[in-house]
């Protein structure tokens, strides 16, 4: 991978990425009136900020994730998303269940792991804080996007109450799924389900079922609307598919009653 990469968007903005992380965004005419020294000073500042971020990630993740490496070897893991197809799912026994967001209100299974990474809906976060499930391990994310941090960062007081592990998530949608969770921030392309999936792969199960991962705008299983950025999330799942083909080719991945993920993995349909 190149250390530096440049991109230009349709609106004329140019972006510079360093090690896959956006370090600068500018318009061409803005840089034309700057001195070269000013430009590189700004670039150096951005790189230093991202270097500090990566050090924070490594310090935290090295304490959190090594103990989960390969922990689900030979197990079946079910990722429970919140799309309407979840209502058709018939839970299977002796599986490890991983949930995200509103799935905390789904009471047909006991979750073993749970992921959430924004504070926009504190009502189901407070429920998750008290959730026991199957000795559920909870993971509360931290985003590296300053604009999102202002409105959606989960307070440390919430994670303390929940006895949750914390993790960092990289909001750069030009990134790639993460191979080493002990040193890198999670790749995220608009859905916490992608983060949960990277964790599941890290635990190295024999089989993964994707349930309620509808990846469209049909809403949630409880009838509420969603505002999913479908193209971003689909791109994320495509990158996950390529990643698993290379690093986890022996792990079988099955989409149950797929909608947006049709024909991406192995499809399986159930009757109502």
Features:
7 helices, sialyltransferase cstii, chain A, 32% helix, 272 residues, 3-stranded antiparallel sheet
What does this structure look like?
- With 272 residues, this protein is of the alpha/beta class.
- It has two domains: 4-54, no CATH class; 68-268, sialyltransferase cstii, chain A (Alpha-Beta Complex).
- The chain is built from seven helices and twelve strands.
- It has a nine-stranded parallel beta sheet with strand order 9-8-7-6-5-4-10-11-12.
- β1 (4-8) and β2 form a beta hairpin.
- It is globular.
- It starts with a strand and ends with a strand.
Summarize the structure.
With 272 residues, the protein is an alpha/beta fold. The chain is built from seven helices and twelve strands.
Shape: globular
Low-pLDDT runs of 5+ residues are none
Number of helices: 7
Order of helices and strands: EEEHHEEEHEHHEEHEHEE
Query: Could you please say which CATH topology of the largest domain applies here?
Result: sialyltransferase cstii, chain A
Tell me the Rg in angstroms.
19 Å
SSE arrangement:
Layout: E1 4-8, E2 13-18, E3 21-27, H1 28-32, H2 36-64, E4 76-80, E5 96-100, E6 113-116, H3 122-130, E7 137-143, H4 146-152, H5 156-162, E8 165-170, E9 186-187, H6 192-202, E10 207-211, H7 230-247, E11 252-256, E12 266-268
Parallel strand pairs: 4-5, 4-10, 5-6, 6-7, 7-8, 8-9, 10-11, 11-12
Antiparallel strand pairs: 1-2, 2-3
